[in-house]
Every structure is written in C-alpha cells, then in structure tokens.
Amino acid sequence: MIYPQIDPVAVQIGPLAVHWYGLMYLVGIFGGWALLVWRTRRRDVAWGPNQVGDLAFYAAIGIVVGGRLGYVLFYNFPFYFAHPMNILFVWDGGMSFHGGLIGVLVACGLYAWRHKRHFFDIMDFLAPVVPIGLAAGRLGNFINGELWGKIAHVPWAMRLPCADPRFTARYCDGVPSGYSPPHQPSQLYELLLEGVLLFIICFWFSMKPRPRMAVSGVFALGYGVFRFFVEFFRLPDPQLGYLAFGWLTMGQVLSLPLIAIGIVLLVLAYRKRDFAPTENPDPPKQVEKA
Predict the structure, then answer these.
(1) pLDDT (tens digit, 9 = 90+) per residue, 165-186?
(2) What's the structural domain count of the chain?
(3) pTM (2 decimals)?
(4) What is the domain extent for residue 15?
(5) Is residue 127 part of a domain?
(6) Can you point out the beta strands (E) in the chain?
C-alpha cells in the first residue's frame, strides 16, 4: 500500500496554520467531555454537567502541559535543552502519553483538593473516556506521518514517498525519490488497541457500579499491556534507539509501571470493596431569582 499523503495543515489563513494534529487533541477533549456529560444522566453517577465542564478544563490543561513536558523529558531532553523555544511547537508532534497521564493526575489531584472529592472517584469517572483522546491522537500521528513501525511485508504495510522531507532521511536512506520499503502502520495499531478496544473494555466495565479504583485499574492495566505489545512493531525514537536487549524501548519501560499499578489497584479495589457515593457531594449552587 502507498501512504495516503495528507497535508498536516488543515487550514492556512495567511501566516496562521491550523494543524490536523492540534485538531485531533480538540476532538479528543471535546469528545470525552460530551460523553461524560451524557453519563451524568445515570442515577448512580454523582456528577452534574457543569462539574464535568470544570473537570474537563483541568484535565485538558494536564494533558497538554504534561504531554509536552513528558516528551521533552523522557524522549528528547538534550535537543529541547539546546532549543527551548521548540517546546512550544506542539503542532510538529512530540507528545508523551505517560507525561500527559502525570499531568492529568496532578490536575485531578488539584480538582479533588479544591472540591473535596475522593481522588479515585474522579479518576474512575474520567478513565473510560480517555481512550477517545488516545484514538484521536494516534490518528493525528498518522496524518503527521510519524511513529511508523518496522519494515514488514504484510498486505497493509505502507510505502512512504521519499520526496517528502518527513520520510527522506529516516525511511529512505536520504534518497529523495521513489518510495520506502513497506512499514507497519504502528500508529494505527495503537489507535485500534489503545483507542477503540480499550474504550470498549473500560466503558463496558464502568457501566455497572464497581469498587473504587477498579475502573482506574482496568484502564492502567489495559493501556500498559497494549502499549507494551505495540512497541514490538513500532520503530524506537531515533534519538533513543533500543534501550536494552535489542528490543526494549522507552515506551515499554514507561508502560511497565502502569501494568503494575493497574494490578495493584484492582487487587485493592476488590479487597476493600469501597464504592463511590451516588449522591453529588458538590451540587451546583442555586442562583436566587429577583
């Protein structure tokens, strides 16, 4: 197959360029917000639409700031240390899920402290919609032409146009003509596993009342396993390469703690069997009419 080359810029208005990669983050954030608002209709969900809006704002800040700083620190610190202004160029790609997760955890911790809510009540409510953002982000990676997998001769592997400067150096040995060998579309594997399948699992699991921490545990375990698996097909970041054994990547190293945390959360959840309250502890304020 030939890569269906798409312009990374969705709309160009003079010097202002709107990139598909950025739009995918908006799709993920607003898609997650809309589904959370829909879930507030359930009687066992102690959230209101206005509170979902506040929570989505906190989470969005955590995703963007944490995701970018995570990529800078985990994947390419020497480059960004030498070129600090490039940290702001998020439209060029370079976001880390693990950094974004840390950012969301910090943001939700602040929300929990401010609104006197249990931290895991927030995380269990939020976790089922996170795969929507993951799927949108991986689609953005595909449009950006990044995160390709290893060379493979499977029917769906894609040959990349070497005349495109995004592919010339890394995938075409510096020859700016013809097409590269066929590569695994690993970003689409991640879209299907970390996005679609993980969403189905987490959403189905959360449709019934579960012990506190259980939904978060399923999400952490599921993401960690799926990401660790896909990394066997994905090429490592060129500035890092394989970290050990000729196959271990940074993505796998960062996913191992998630797998462990997911298992621990599930064990604790079903030992304690502590359920979240079904009444809203932070109801919206009533405004008196004159």
Answers:
(1) 889 988 998 889 899 999 999 9
(2) 1
(3) 0.86
(4) 9-149+184-206
(5) yes
(6) 9-13, 16-19
